[in-house]
Design goal:
heterodimer; A: 487 residues; two-stranded antiparallel sheet; 3% strand; globular; B: mainly alpha; 72% helix
């Protein structure tokens, strides 16, 4: 029955896309759509009516939440009213909807048609795709020095942000193996991130080992957990898999939280050592990195070193994925994503294929987690909540499933975006001193997730480089990519 | 024995709340095959609307019985109506534009909507927990313990209200699905949307109504949760949502009696685990049971087996 529904959904999608393509073609040719209306009266009336309805819905939605506010008063909850906020919100919604109706939704010549024409053609996109990767790589390698040169006093802040973005890029690439290539929907990826972080944290805490020794161990342990968690879910498909992986993520977090004797529970583990530069520590002393190279001591050097570590780790992830796709195992992953039954009929061992995908993805998650632990110097279960899994999955899906460069773009947009929202203090001058812009960060993040997805359901980068080719390379357009059916 | 009985009553109460939320998941999954991740947060929105209605009506424990029943009924109806608007809007904004798109897209917008709802409530109502003085107190003593602990088995009025409301709503709801044209349309869309559309069923409207019904039931669960526990915050939706989804999967997703059964089971497992073992690991217990059931019975307890078609 579920398959029936999926079947009909796919057909409607192809129909819808066809219609879109036709509309786009006629718009691109500069022809007005067939139902052009020379007289604008009905348009305005319809727009007004629609805007009033939308405003009514907004009023119903906002009545309790914007119009009223509960505060903890003396002994009991007190309720205050603030109708002005509600009225302003309703007016904003009304005007916005009216303007959108008049200019986009109801008019015969939406102003957005021009935007479609601005979008680069497929061949131009292919060129951009070829150039963008190496270009980003060059920028990434040179970034710390560019920042030191141009950002001045804020260099440290920007390098920190770049490290954060690269961590998410690496996590995205790791999850891409599981979700994008093998098509296994994993909502508990943060579990492996946590395993990696805690492996290093606990090893450092109990045996005093350093980052470079623990990194492979953390990756190995995370891969083992990938196998352990992957084994029971082999028979599950689609959303069942999603919910069980989510449950596993939560179980690991709850255990880390409650096993106080071993993991220190909610207090976390602190004093995790920083990575050394081939045995040299980034300290002020005589045997430190700066003294050894005869440089003036600067705490920035450690950040730059951290930056290059995560850059290298991320690039290794990308390189390995890239190479694996050409190996039989990588092709088996992609075949599994497209059709599990066909896979089995052709003699592919689906059990091993799934398990290797889980283990590979988990291993890179473990590396990233270990890096996270060393960067923060402190870990607690709070860093490994479901929202992290959701953000990583959102990066993968928003980037375009299976697309490596898409993950980079999505991570820069989403993570860079949220961090930029920390600097919205100028809004205080507009809305008054009580306005706290940082509270709106996650709200805007969530809205961005919804709108980007509605705008580009297949992600930012939709074309695919085929893994195996006969004679010549052809790029696969978005309409041909039928992945993510979730088997 | 008395202890067991008490845990049984508590478990059934908690299970009723999970069951009411689980119905929303299972219906949406049945009709469009997606996990409505924002459903737990719709439940939270329902709890907040109930809280504000109770404050607006000035309902306290000292109110007379007639006024209390009337007021609770008004709160219930208002919460159902306004939460339904939220459910409808979420579907309209985040899921309908993606209908027929590839399957992970609505999952991502659902997670996005969940983040939006949580943070919207946090921004507008504050992050601190909202305590509510108990309104319905007292209850029956069913049995008095004879052992050294002298455990008294109590069935509070609140628990009676929760269980009775759930049973009444479930009965009404099953009737709605089984007998009315709306229920027929809903079941038709569940089986084959295209065929249903060809036979003159407004598929979009039916799907919207599914979300509305799910949200209404979730708001009832929200009110019950608020009255039972007396404290809510903007984050209650996540855990309750995951548990309720677990319940829906456990019972066999797409099956209404399954959702109810799964809810009761999850409630009972959780209560007994906290009662006899450790409170800290009660969620681990619930999730482990889910994993074990799915491994041996991949379509849940009451679900129809998923036939693979080539």
């Amino acid at each position: 029955m579920a398959d029936d529904a999926a079947g009909s959904v796919t057909t409607t999608s192809s129909l819808g896309e066809q219609r879109d393509v036709e509309a786009w073609k006629s718009a691109a040719a500069g022809e007005p759509p067939a139902h052009a209306m020379p007289w604008h009266g009905p348009v305005i009336a319809a727009s007004l009516k629609d805007a009033v309805l939308v405003a009514l819905v907004a009023a119903a939605l906002g009545f309790f939440f914007l119009g009223l506010r509960t505060e903890i008063g003396v002994g009991t909850l007190e309720m205050t009213t603030r109708w002005n906020v509600l009225i302003i919100a309703i007016l904003v919604v009304f005007v916005a909807r009216l303007v959108l109706n008049l200019l986009v939704f109801k008019t015969s010549r939406p102003i957005t048609t021009g935007i479609d024409r601005l979008a680069p053609s497929a061949s131009a996109l292919a060129l951009i795709g070829r150039v963008l990767g190496p270009l980003l790589l060059v920028v990434a390698v040179a970034l710390p020095f560019l920042l030191l040169e141009f950002a001045g006093g804020r260099a440290r802040q920007f390098i920190d942000l770049a490290i954060l973005i690269l961590t998410y890029i690496m996590l995205g690439w790791g999850l891409n193996i599981v979700v994008g290539l093998a098509g296994l929907l994993d909502l508990g990826y943060v579990a492996f991130y946590a395993v990696g972080a805690y492996s290093f944290g606990l090893l450092a805490h109990y045996s005093g080992l350093g980052f470079w020794v623990c990194l492979p161990v953390a990756g190995f342990l995370a891969a083992m957990w990938g196998l352990i968690l992957g084994f029971p879910v082999l028979r599950l498909r689609g959303d069942y898999l999603a919910i069980v992986t989510l449950a596993f993520g939560e179980i690991i977090r709850i255990i880390l939280l409650n096993w106080y004797d071993f993991t220190n529970g909610p207090d976390g583990i602190s004093g995790i050592p920083k990575p050394t530069f081939f045995g040299l520590e980034f300290s002020r002393g005589d045997d430190g990195f700066d003294a050894f190279f005869g440089l003036k001591y600067s705490s920035l050097h450690r950040f730059i070193w951290l930056y290059y570590i995560i850059l290298a780790l991320a690039l290794v992830t990308n390189f390995v994925t890239h190479r694996l796709r050409r190996l039989p195992i990588g092709r088996a992953w992609e075949a599994l994503r497209e059709d599990e039954i066909a896979c089995r009929s052709l003699g592919i061992n689906t059990r091993n294929t799934k398990l290797t995908a889980f283990a590979m993805g988990a291993m890179f998650g473990g590396f990233a987690g270990s890096f996270f632990a060393t960067r923060q110097g402190f870990i607690s279960p709070e860093s490994f909540t479901f929202i992290e899994s959701a953000i990583i999955l959102a990066i993968v899906v928003l980037g375009g499933l299976g697309s490596q460069i898409g993950v980079v773009l999505a991570a820069i947009v989403m993570i860079g975006g949220i961090e930029m929202l920390r600097n919205l203090n100028f809004l205080k001058e507009v809305f008054g001193p009580n306005f706290e812009p940082t509270h709106y960060r996650m709200l805007i993040f969530g809205l961005a997730m919804v709108f980007i997805m509605v705008w580009k359901p297949r992600g930012l980068v939709t074309s695919r480089e085929p893994s195996a080719v006969l004679k010549e390379k052809k790029r696969i357009g978005a309409d041909m990519v039928a992945q993510g059916e979730g088997h | 024995m008395e202890y067991f009985l008490q845990q049984l009553i508590n478990g059934l109460t908690l299970g009723s709340i999970y069951g009411l939320i689980a119905i929303g998941y299972t219906m949406v999954y049945g009709i469009i095959g997606m996990i409505n991740f924002a459903h737990g947060d719709i439940f939270m929105v329902g709890a907040f609307i109930s809280l504000m209605m109770i404050l607006a009506l000035g309902l306290t424990a000292s109110a007379g019985l007639a006024f209390m029943l009337l007021a609770l009924f008004i709160v219930l109806v208002v919460a159902m109506v306004f939460t339904s608007v939220w459910g409808w809007t979420v579907e309209r904004l985040a899921y309908r534009p993606l209908r027929g798109s590839f399957r992970l897209a609505p999952l991502i917008t659902a997670i996005g909507m969940s983040i939006v709802l949580q943070n919207f409530v946090q921004v507008t109502q504050g992050a601190r927990v909202k305590p509510l003085q108990p309104i319905v107190s007292g209850g029956f003593q069913i049995a008095e313990g004879t052992g050294p602990n002298q455990i008294v088995v109590q069935l509070s009025y609140m628990q009676i209200i929760i269980i009775v409301t759930t049973v009444v709503l479930m009965a009404g709801f099953s009737l709605l699905i089984a007998k009315t044209p709306l229920g027929r349309a809903q079941r038709a869309c569940e089986q084959d949307q295209k065929m249903a559309a060809l036979l003159g069923i407004n598929v979009d409207r039916t799907i919207s109504l599914t979300f509305v019904m799910g949200a209404a039931l979730a708001s009832v669960a929200g009110l019950m949760f608020l009255l039972y526990y007396g404290v809510i915050d903007f984050y209650i939706g996540f855990l309750a949502g995951v548990k309720a989804f677990t319940a829906a999967v456990l019972g066999g997703i797409g099956s209404l009696p399954g959702a109810m059964l799964g809810g009761l089971l999850i409630g009972l497992i959780e209560t007994f685990w906290s009662g006899y073992f450790t409170v800290e690991y009660k969620d681990v217990a619930a999730f482990s049971i889910l994993a074990i059931v799915l491994i041996f019975l991949p379509s849940g307890l009451l679900g129809r087996p998923d036939v693979e078609k080539v």
